[in-house]
Amino acid sequence: MTTPRPAILIARAVFPEVEHKLRQHFEVESTPPGVFWSPAQLAEKLQGKTGAMTTGGERVDAALLAACPQLKIAANIAVGYNNFDLPAMTAAGVLGTNTPDVLTETTADFGFALLMATARRVSESEHFLRAGQWKEWSLDLFAGVEVHGSTLGILGMGRIGQAIARRGAHGFGMNVIYHNRSRLDADKEAACKARYVSKDELFAQADHVVLVLPYTPTAYHTVGAAEIARMKPSATLINIARGGIVDEDALVAALRERRIAAAGLDVFEGEPQVNPGLLSVPNVVLTPHIASATIPTRTAMAMLAADNLIAYLTEGRALTPLNPQVIAP
Ligand code: GLV
Predict the structure, then answer these.
(1) Is residue 278 part of a domain?
(2) Could you tell me if 122 and 253 lie in one domain?
(3) Is residue 33 predicted with pLDDT exceeding 70?
(4) CATH number for the domain including 306?
(5) Which atom of ligand 1 lies nearest, measured to the CA of 301?
(6) Are residues 114 and 94 in the same domain?
(7) Closest CA to ligand 1's atom 3
(8) Ligand 1 center–CA 160 separation, angstroms
(9) Ligand 1 cavity residues, CB under 6 Å
């Protein structure tokens, strides 16, 4: 008699090669492209499944865990995991995994792209051109703020923050300052030519503030009216972390009144819904959570999530566990 293969759910459509790999090990229920499950539908789909491949759009919380007692692992296709209630998962004996490292450089590239598009008014000027409004060239036409040689302030100096710092320091001759929960060791600071400052100093001194911190409950509205008020009127704010880190209403007011020059946002509180205020101001570049979106990187992320499912459900180990105490209590 052969033992039945574990059953898993791929909760959001993945690339065919990823699904093919999973089908070699599991009974797989996949999700068609363009289909997104509500929490109730997700719980129903997970009945009888021991593994789930999730994205930031699927919440794995106490309610879902109570409804899906067979679940053993949720493998997130993301480095962030604020969609996981990790204490509840640990209490239920469910392993969570994420996808660090494979997206670091690609995400840093995008952080820099968003910074440059924001500082140099790329989207705003393209909309102007496409709308047929370009009649004459003038010296101050869409004049932006300087990138090279300016001060880059990075809030959250993990792997992605350091990769952005290296680009700024070595590629653009920027003066890099950062604030983080803990200060980097001297070697890492030297590699990205970065100087540690307080959070207040960072907001006051930076020409470009880039947010790359993890979204924990204490990070909610880390950037509100008070932080924005400290920024230079010529400064930009770039968020590639999570939407809830910024008080969007305070940001809209500051952008509308030109108390800061511009913002670039890849993430939104309540995404895919976007605060209507943000849609109504011109000096903000808005992108739909695509910082890690290249085909090679998204494939590597999905493959790492697949490898975590395979390793855990077939051999009881994981490559990038978030709560390893579930494996070795
Ligand atoms: C994307 O936002 C991620 O956390 O990987």
Answers:
(1) yes
(2) yes
(3) yes
(4) 3.40.50.720
(5) 5
(6) no
(7) 78
(8) 11
(9) 56, 78-80, 103, 292
User: At 159, which amino acid appears?
Assistant: R
Q: Could you tell me if 133 and 214 lie in one domain? A: yes
Q: Ligand 1 centroid vs 302 CA: distance in angstroms?
A: 12
What pTM, to 2 d.p., does this model score?
0.96
The mean pLDDT of 184-190, rounded to a whole number, is 97
Query: Strand, helix or coil at 250?
Result: helix
> 246 and 111, same structural domain?
yes
Q: Which domain holds residue 196?
A: 104-286
**Contact present, 223 and 267 (Cβ < 8 Å):** no
Q: Which amino acid is at 27?
A: E
Q: Return the number of other C-beta atoms located less than 10 Å from residue 80's C-beta.
A: 16
Q: Is 191 found in the same domain as 76?
A: no
Rounded to whole angstroms, the Cα distance separating 271 from 54 reads 16
How far is Cα 43 from Cα 287, in angstroms, rounded to an integer? 30
Question: Is 314 inside a domain boundary?
Answer: yes
- Residue 260 placed within a domain: yes
Do 227 and 201 fall into the same domain? yes
Whether 54 and 34 share a structural domain:
yes
pLDDT band for 1, please (50, 70, 90 cuts): low
C-alpha of residue 123 to centroid of ligand 1, in Å: 23
Cα 272 to averaged position of ligand 1 atoms, centre (Å)? 14
pLDDT of residue 161: 98
Residue of the CA atom closest to atom 5 of ligand 1: 78
The tens digit of pLDDT for each residue in 210-265 reads: 999 999 989 999 999 999 999 999 999 999 999 999 999 999 999 999 999 999 99
CA distances from 282 to 127, 136, 147, 245, 247 (A): 10, 20, 20, 21, 18
Cα distance between residue 108 and residue 295, in whole Å: 16
Report the atom number in ligand 1 closest to the C-alpha of 77.
5
Which residues have a catalytic role annotated? Answer: 242, 271, 289
When divided into structural domains, the chain yields a total of 2
Q: Does residue 2 fall inside a structural domain?
A: no
Nearest CA to ligand 1 atom 1: 78
